[in-house]
Amino acid sequence: MSFRWVYAQPEQEDRVPALEHSLGVPEKIARLLAIRGIETYDDAKTFFRPTIDLLYDPFLMKDMAEGAERLALAIRKSEKVLVYGDYDVDGTTATACVYTFLKEFGVDAEYYIPHRFKEGYGINPEGIQYAAEIEADLIVSVDCGITAIEEAKQITERGMDLIICDHHTVGDAIPEAVAVLDPKRPDCDYPFDGLSGAGVGFKLIQGTLKKLGLPNTIAYKYLDLVAISIASDIVPIIDENRIMMKAGLQSLKTSPRLGIKALLELIKMPVDDITTSKIVFSIGPRINAAGRMGDATTAVELMIAESYEEGRALALELESINLKRRDKDSTTMDEALAQIDEELDMEDISTLVLYKPDWHLGVIGIVASRLVDLFHRPAIMLSNVDGKIKGSARSIKGFNIYDAMKECEDLLEQFGGHEFAAGLTLQESNLSEFRRRINKIAYHVLSGTKFEPELSIDTRLDFKEIDMKFWKLLAQFKPFGPANLRPIFVTEGVKVVGIPTVVGNGHLKMKLRQNGSGVFDAIGFNMHEFLPSVRNGQPFNIAYVLEENYWNGRRTLQMRLKDIHLS
């Protein structure tokens, strides 16, 4: 698949030469900074050196004073506390984070993660009943609760207090609780609203420590869990998230907790190799697998394991669950593609709405994401659970799937999410009308588009500009992630040196030169179809990211190709 290249532009072009001069960096580095909103020398200093002391005061968050005071009281009085989480990576890391904090202070704490299929997302009657049975004095919800209006009332009526830590979009009303911590609250002036659920839980820990008269630096030991949540929940890695991500990665590399260490050794990942990307594609999916297949308890137990042996056993269990999840993924993807081929006319639809009653609810979100990548259309995958249709939606740039759901809310029993991802529940009798209406909404919003996937390019770059100084500066842009993606460059008029080959499972491998420059290794994963085009000796243009390749004790720069355009 080839992409339409779209070049990023800084909001103010004059910032580029100003940054180049004040920082003494190459023009292309200054351009990359300007594109990321860096305007001044001080901005650049903070970007390149995101130190932990730059974290915001937790009490800038609405209701933090009340929430921290209540949790501090629970610690002082040794009350019974239930940490109520969610079954995804963010929810389980947030649960492990707050639960471990409370246990370290001797609190009689327990945790509760709802079963994905039996109970669904968020605070529910089963969880409230469990809290009552264990005689909890306080419930702390993490990564959920912002829409729990009725559930919050039930908790109060049962004589329990509630602190909500969430980061999801706020509905029309805010639950009544001791504290509702959510930086997305319209009445919250917290400087950064992009925190993960675990990030909000971390801020509560910081605030509680201060109320206890202790240094909030004690909370830093939980940043490894926060880093896993930030990477896995695809929140923007800028501002405060960037600070916590960098510190958390360092913690994972130097002192991983026992369960995580066991998992890393099981999958043969050296701690020095841990990056945002490795969390997203290797660590996160394994932690997430338990919740996707139903019960996320194993994931939490892994992260709170008190011995390596216990962690090893849990890691093995997670790996087994993950293998089953991958089998389900593969089968569901094949069935979805067959349904598209047999039932849908891609010329007539703007949204893929696919339904099969026995699809596994835990994997349809993953498959929806792959369909978006493949067809560059919003995709909604639906299954049947206990007589109701439930599903996951994923979207593309320019189409807010949450807003589209809101226009269909008369057909839905429940929905929630954000611009690019959402979940929904509806009656089967409304499926046909929902499919018609969501497609109509997408048609109007996306009218004029050819559904051609875009590739966002940071800047053009000549090979002669690439040297180790450039690479060392570029490496300081890490950690990469949403809102600070690994820069994609375009170099025009390159030629193959020697003979290009196909290696592995269809990967294009070759050496490239531009206008008498040095020679660079390049590899394009699953790009074997370009082989005939590049071996004819004619120049072509490449889009790529730069990365360091380490082989036989030697480090070299390598280009990982994203796309090729013939000149």
CATH fold field value of the largest domain: inorganic pyrophosphatase (n-terminal core)
Number of strands: 18
Q: In CATH terms, what is the architecture of the largest domain?
A: Alpha-Beta Complex
Any idea what the shape is?
Answer: globular
The assigned structural class equals: alpha/beta
Distance between the termini: 17 Å
Taking all Cα atoms into account, the compactness measure Rg is: 25 Å
**Spatial arrangement of strands, main beta sheet:** 3-2-4-5-6
Give average pLDDT, whole number.
94
Q: Largest sheet, described in full?
A: 5 strands, parallel
**Helix segment count?**
19
Low-confidence stretches: none
Number of domains: 3
Strand fraction: 15-25%
Helicity range: 40-55%
Question: What do these coordinates show?
Answer:
- The protein is an alpha/beta fold and 567 residues long.
- Strand 7, helix 15 and strand 8 (379-385) form a beta-alpha-beta unit.
- The longest helix has 36 residues, at 308-343.
- It has a 5-stranded parallel sheet with strand order 3-2-4-5-6, with helices on both faces.
- Helix 11 crosses helix 14.
- The protein has 3 domains: 4-8 and 455-566, Beta Barrel (OB fold (Dihydrolipoamide Acetyltransferase, E2P)), CATH 2.40.50; 56-319, Alpha-Beta Complex (inorganic pyrophosphatase (n-terminal core)), CATH 3.90.1640.30; 344-445, Diaminopimelate Epimerase, Chain A, domain 1, CATH 3.10.310.
- The mean pLDDT is 94.
- Helix content is 41%, strand content 20%.
- It contains 19 helices and 18 strands.
